[in-house]
Each structure stands twice: as C-alpha cells, then as structure tokens.
C-alpha cells in the first residue's frame, strides 16, 4: 500500500512515520508513504494557498488550484482520494478495514475554515474523526493512516489483531499485567488460574459488560445472541 498525504505541515506528518510500530512497518516495506506540501503547487510567488471566501465571512479557505495541481502530480488509476472534513460520517474500524485494501490512498488535509467546495468533485470520499472541529486535517490523516497500516499483512503480530475493540461490534475485555496486586487492587483470580476455558468465558463476559456500559449503541449494530445475553446478565449481577 502507498499512502500520500497532501498537507501544509509536511514536517509534522513525516515525523509521525518515524516512530514505533509504524516506522518498523515502513522499514520492512509493508507500506510506502509520500508527503506533499500543497504550497509547492501554488502559482503565487509567495506560495499562498488560501484566500477569502466569496460572499464574505470569517477566516480563509484553501484554494482549489494548488490542491488540484498536487493531486494531478500524485494521482494514478489505482488512487483513492480522501478529504478530511467535518461534513462526513465518523471514521470507523470498518472504514479502516475497507480502505486498507486499496493500493493507493491519497489524503487531503483540510485547513483554515475549510476548502473550496469544488474540491469535492475531485475526491472519492470525505472522512471525519467525529463530531468536533480540529484546526486542520493533519491529525485526522495520521489517525486514518495508523488505523489502516496496522491492518496490513506483516505490519504487526497477527495475534495482536485478534479480539480487538470494534472488530466484532464489541469492546475489548480489560487486561492486566504484573504485579498481581498493586495498591490493594488485585488482578481477577480467574486470570491467574491457568484455566483457559474459564479465562475465555470471563473475557467474553467483560467484553459484553464494557460494551454495555460504554458503547451500548453497538448492540444495535449487532444484536446480542442468546449466549451473550446470558453472559451479560451474569456480568451485571456480579458487578
């Protein structure tokens, strides 16, 4: 997979890809990243890429011309173009899984008060992180990239992807590590028992309980099975 990010803050984007799991995956050739400074495609001698909106209003808009010129320089038949925008449904794990199958993702980072609306004719999809406003699309582009990259083959240990939150419309169960007791707080006995069947059942119950407490709406997306209803009832009584 190749990821191309169009931004006004090239250094900010590039630095992220030089750390931790993402950097190791890049070094192994799992994915390729290209970061393009939109200002490099400005025809203005001062490299301006924004202007005041027609009709008046506060703030400045990213102009369509430098973005279109940047797109033409990096786009191919395999490219799929995303525009970060608050006018889109929130990005989800399902979106990450779908987009991770693309050969080339181009992400345009919005900024200022937004972009000239005509740029939407040049993109395949708008994407948002949620119902709030950021000062720019750079953080969104990194979140989207990270979510896709970790799903790529050989990016991380496949076992780490099993039973993750949202993969099955359920939140992941709570996990613990040493010490077994800290500040009077004990790791659940079942996790120390070595009884794999009991551990698996406990984890399923806790997954359902946390989903019920924090993201009950996920049950609308995937209704509870009879077995899950029984486990959740047990977990609620125990709680």
Mean pLDDT figure:
94
Structural class: alpha/beta
What global shape is seen? Answer: elongated
Q: In percent, how helical is the residue content?
A: 25-40%
CATH superfamily of the largest domain: SPOUT methyltransferase, trefoil knot domain
CATH class of the largest domain: Alpha Beta
Q: What pattern of helices and strands is seen along the backbone?
A: EHHEEEHEHEEHEEHHHH
* Main sheet: strands, sense, barrel: 5 strands, parallel
Q: What share of the residues does DSSP label as strand, in percent?
A: 5-15%
What is the CA-based Rg, rounded? Answer: 22 Å
Low-confidence segments, given as residue ranges, are none
Strand order of the largest sheet: 2-1-6-5-7
Q: Count all strands and give the number.
A: 9
What gap, in angstroms, lies between the N and C termini?
45 Å
Number of domains: 2
CATH topology of the largest domain: Alpha/beta knot
Named at the architecture level, the CATH assignment of the largest domain is 3-Layer(aba) Sandwich
**Count of DSSP H/I helices:** 9
